[in-house]
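ARCHIVE CARD
CATEGORY: sequence design from structure
SOURCE FIELD: tokenized fold
FIELD CONTENT:
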């Protein structure tokens, strides 16, 4: 029996996803096959352990599924070992710390204020609570990672582990340099490539794999898979990583999600995925061009990847929070974001983060993204009037009308 109240909420969300311009840099739209597998009968199966080493009977078919997922992701990145069981990116990072560190060990990660992630040592996160985390960041002049300062910190702190990777950083990270400094100083080097995983898979962003001892990722951002995490590592760390995920941190794996991950990796291996990843970057560059024409200040001067950080306080005299609301009202979804050296509290923030992966999946090309950037500029630079709002809504509808998505799906 259907809970109509609940299904109606999901239907409304389906329509929001169909009709809005989705610019959250960490989101994407999965294929119908990924959706089908994420909602499949595999949700019924307990499979604690790993393929051929399970604590439950009846695992022969889910073993096939997990093996496919592991093999495919290793092929994609040239990784020696993969654990596809982490329920999320945060869980993947937790398992790595559990495998490699003792309580109180020193770790160096990117500052959240400069684009890092909570799990890279924020004091309120388990990482900052359980380990002695230090943070590196960006230089005031360039707003890109201050590699010389980072080197000095590694030499002084002598961390056991260095964590690279970010949630709000629009430039390419020099993994080779960071790894060399870490290794020269006796530290392990981990890259959390959650945001750029799809770009790396397609070869349109430098890969951390030749340099990193461990790489973690989410599967739901540029990789365009179900929500989840993966850990990849060198063979010699494989047993420790697997033990940390299960039984260290999780119970039964989400086999339906692992099946959806395997389908995602299959899609990533198709030639079209390379075109998709290239288009993500072309689209981000198209937005960069228009924002510059419109006189907006972009953090780090622009983008090399799938996202832009726009300093709306400097550009339009409004907070990130207000910009997010003004865009929400015209069916454009983005998120407020702190910018480096922000003088506002994170909940208000001076910036907005804008990403191109989701709308690139819907088929938007450079000219569409140029129009999106123009609409954003028009909305944020002008007074908050009903006329401007209506005009923007019409322009947004004109862009979204031409794309159809999930047309076979209905919940009510
Ligand atoms: N690592 C990075 C760099 C991220 O950006 C994120 C999510 O935004 C995560 C980890 C955490 O992923 P999840 O939300 O799946 O726990």
């Amino acid at each position: 029996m259907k809970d109509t109240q609940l299904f109606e909420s999901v239907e409304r969300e389906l329509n929001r996803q169909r009709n809005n311009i989705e610019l959250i840099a960490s989101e994407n739209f999965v294929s119908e096959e990924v959706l089908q597998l994420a909602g499949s009968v595999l949700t019924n199966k307990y499979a604690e352990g790993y393929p051929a080493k399970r604590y439950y009977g009846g695992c022969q078919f889910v073993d096939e599924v997990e093996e496919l997922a592991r093999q495919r992701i290793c092929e994609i990145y040239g990784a020696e070992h993969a654990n596809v069981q982490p329920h999320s990116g945060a869980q993947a990072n937790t398992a790595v710390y559990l495998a490699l560190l003792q309580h109180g060990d020193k770790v160096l990660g990117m500052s959240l204020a400069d684009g890092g992630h909570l799990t890279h040592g924020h004091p309120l996160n388990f990482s900052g609570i359980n380990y002695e985390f230090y943070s590196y960041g960006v230089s005031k002049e360039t707003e890109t990672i201050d590699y010389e300062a980072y080197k000095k910190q590694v030499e002084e702190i002598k961390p056991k582990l260095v964590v690279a990777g970010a949630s709000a950083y629009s430039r390419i990270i020099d993994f080779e340099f960071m790894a060399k400094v870490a290794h020269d100083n006796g530290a392990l080097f981990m890259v959390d490539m959650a945001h750029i995983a799809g770009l790396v898979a397609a070869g349109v962003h430098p890969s951390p794999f030749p340099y990193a001892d461990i790489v973690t990722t989410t599967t739901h951002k540029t990789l365009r898979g179900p929500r989840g995490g993966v850990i990849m590592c060198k063979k010699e760390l494989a047993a420790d990583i697997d033990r940390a995920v299960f039984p260290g941190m999780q119970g039964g794996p989400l086999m339906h999600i692992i099946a959806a991950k395997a389908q995602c990796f299959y899609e990533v291996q198709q030639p079209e995925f390379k075109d998709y990843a290239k288009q993500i970057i072309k689209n981000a560059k198209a937005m960069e061009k228009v924002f510059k024409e419109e006189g907006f200040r972009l953090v780090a001067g622009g983008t090399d990847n799938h996202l832009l950080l726009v300093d709306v306080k400097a550009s339009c005299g409004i907070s990130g929070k207000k910009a997010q609301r003004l865009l929400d009202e015209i069916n454009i979804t983005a998120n407020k974001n702190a910018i480096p050296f922000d003088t506002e509290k994170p909940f208000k923030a001076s910036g907005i983060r804008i990403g191109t992966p989701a709308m690139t999946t819907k088929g938007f090309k450079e000219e569409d993204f140029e129009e999106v950037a123009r609409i954003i500029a028009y909305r944020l630079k002008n007074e908050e009037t009903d006329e401007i709002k209506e005009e923007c809504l019409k322009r947004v509808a004109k862009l979204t009308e031409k794309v159809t998505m999930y047309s076979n799906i209905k919940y009510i």
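CARD ANNOTATION: The pocket of pyridoxal-5'-phosphate is lined by residues 26, 88-90, 117, 119, 165-167, 192, 194-195, 218, 229 (CB under 6 Å). The longest strand covers residues 106-110.
SHELF: design records, drawer C
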